[in-house]
Amino acid sequence: MPSALGTAGTFFGADHVLFGSDCPFDPEGGPMYIRETIRVIDALDVTDAAREQIYHLNIRRLIRQPD
Predict the structure, then answer these.
(1) 3 within 8 A of 40, measured Cβ to Cβ
(2) pLDDT tens digits, 36-64
(3) pLDDT for 21-35, tens place per residue?
(4) From the CA atom positions of the chain, what is the Rg in Å?
(5) Residues 12, 14, 15, 18: is their CA dihedral positive or negative?
(6) pLDDT at 57
């Protein structure tokens, strides 16, 4: 998973990647996939600004939510 997410970020750019989940479809009923995705995003070799884009700024921009 880290290389797939890293490759997506490299190819598309952090401004085209969103944090998301298919919760509750994991063996723990949801928290495992969320926890593991956060772990992978936090381990990416990206700036803090890029990480903020992935976690919440991109979706806010897409839905035109004001700051």
Answers:
(1) no
(2) 889 989 999 999 999 999 999 999 999 99
(3) 777 778 887 788 888
(4) 12
(5) positive
(6) 96
Q: What is the DSSP string of 25-67?
A: -STTSSHHHHHHHHHHHHHSS--HHHHHIIIIIHHHHHTT---
Residue 21 has a CB neighbour count (10 Å cut-off) of 14
Contact 36, 23 (CB under 8 A): no
The tally of CA atoms less than 13 A away on the side-chain side of residue 14 is: 15
Q: Return the residue matching tokens 């969103």.
A: 18
Residue type at 1?
A: M
Helix 2-12 × helix 31-43 angle, to 10°: 60
